[in-house]
Design brief:
Distance between the termini: 36 Å
Low-confidence stretches: none
Number of helices: 12
CATH topology of one domain: Rossmann fold
CATH architecture of one domain: 3-Layer(aba) Sandwich
Structural class: alpha/beta
Organism: Nonomuraea helvata
Strand content: 15-25%
Protein name: NAD-dependent epimerase
Helix content: 40-55%
Order of helices and strands: EHEEHEHEHEEHEEHEEHEHHHHH
Mean pLDDT: 93
Oligomer: single chain
InterPro entries: NAD(P)-bd_dom_sf
Largest sheet: 7 strands, parallel
CATH class of one domain: Alpha Beta
Length: 296
C-alpha cells in the first residue's frame, strides 16, 4: 500500500488527502493544529513543519511528500524560505517524491495567457519568494514537481473571492473588492487543484517541471452573478477598492497592505493556459456552476 505525507490542512490539502485515501492509499497530514478530514486511512498529526528533524521522522517511508502549506500572507518573504528549506531537507533525507502546490505570483505581471514554461520574472517580495521556492527545489536534484493554481474558488476556498465577494453576494450586501470587476480573471477550484496534485504525483512525466491547475476564466462580477443566481439571491452589488483603500486598511491589519503586489492589476485579462495539464495529466476544469452548487 502506498503512503503519503501532506503538509497543510486547508481545503486543497484535505481534498487531496481524501482522493488518495479513497484509492486505498495511506495519508499522514501534518499541521500545527493536527487538523484534516476524518477517514480511516488519514492520520492527522500536530507538528511544526519548519522543524526539519521532526518532519523527516514523520515523512520516513512515504512515497510522496505533498506541501500545500504557506505562512501568513504578510510574512511570506521572511517565513516561506524557512518552511521550504525544511521541506526540501526532509525530501532529501527520505527520498520521497516532492509535489509542491504553488501559485501564479512568481510570474509577475504578464499580458498574455500564462503558460507553465514562462520565466519566473516577478520582482515583488511575495512573487520572488514563491519563485525561489521552486527554483531551489528544481535545482536540488530531488524528484519534484510544482502544481500552480490561480485564485481559489469553491467549497472551502480561502481567497479574495471567498472572503470578500461570496457572502455579500449570497446575502444581497455590497461587496468591496480589491480587483478589477469586469476584467477576465482565471480561477482554480479546490477540487481541480486536488485532482491535479494527485495526477502529477502519479505521472513520471510530471516531475522536473511545473503544471497549471485547470481554470475557469470570467470576471469577478460574472462569477458573483452566477453564484447569486444559482442561490436565488439578488444581482450582486459590487465596488472596486482603490489603492488608497488598501493602504488605509493596512493600518488595521497587515494583510491589506500586502495585497498591492498581487491584486492591483493593469486593465488586461489575467488568463492561465492549462492545455498541457489536460493533454498530459488528463485533468480538465470542472464546470463553474457545478463548483458553485457544491459551494452553496
Amino acid at each position: 500500500m502506498k503512503s503519503h505525507v501532506i503538509v497543510g490542512r486547508g481545503a486543497a490539502a484535505s481534498r487531496t488527502a481524501l482522493l488518495l485515501a479513497e484509492d486505498g492509499e495511506r495519508v499522514r497530514m501534518i499541521s500545527r493544529t493536527g487538523g484534516g478530514p476524518d477517514h480511516p486511512l488519514v492520520e492527522k498529526v500536530a507538528a511544526d513543519a519548519t522543524d526539519a528533524d521532526r518532519l523527516t521522522e514523520l515523512a520516513e517511508g512515504a512515497d510522496t511528500l505533498f506541501t500545500t502549506a504557506v505562512p501568513p500572507y504578510h510574512v511570506w518573504p521572511e517565513q516561506l524560505p524557512i518552511l521550504t528549506a525544511s521541506l526540501l531537507t526532509a525530501v532529501r533525507r527520505t527520498g520521497a517524491a516532492y509535489v509542491m502546490l504553488g501559485n501564479m505570483y512568481g510570474y509577475g505581471p504578464v499580458d498574455r495567457p500564462i503558460a507553465p514554461d514562462f520565466p519566473l520574472a516577478a520582482t515583488g517580495p511575495k512573487g520572488r519568494a514563491r519563485a525561489r521556492a521552486w527554483e531551489e527545489a528544481a535545482s536540488s536534484g530531488v524528484k519534484v514537481t510544482e502544481v500552480r493554481a490561480a485564485q481559489f474558488y469553491g467549497a472551502g476556498a480561502f481567497s479574495v473571492f471567498s472572503l470578500m465577494v461570496q457572502r455579500p453576494a449570497l446575502e444581497g450586501r455590497l461587496a468591496l473588492v480589491p480587483q478589477e470587476l469586469d476584467v477576465p480573471h482565471s480561477y482554480s477550484s479546490i477540487g481541480d487543484t486536488a485532482r491535479t496534485l494527485v495526477a502529477a504525483s502519479r505521472d513520471e512525466q510530471a516531475y522536473g517541471r511545473a503544471w497549471h491547475v485547470p481554470t475557469a476564466t470570467l470576471s469577478v462580477r460574472e462569477l458573483a452573478g452566477r453564484l447569486a443566481r444559482l442561490a436565488g439571491a439578488p444581482e450582486p452589488r459590487m465596488e472596486e477598492m482603490t489603492e488608497r483603500d488598501l493602504t488605509l486598511l493596512g493600518f488595521t491589519d497587515p494583510l491589506w497592505g500586502e495585497m498591492h503586489e498581487a491584486l492591483i492589476k493593469p486593465g488586461h485579462p489575467f488568463v492561465v493556459d492549462f492545455s498541457e495539464t489536460e493533454k498530459v495529466l488528463g485533468v480538465s476544469a470542472t464546470p463553474v456552476d457545478d463548483v458553485l452548487r457544491e459551494l452553496i
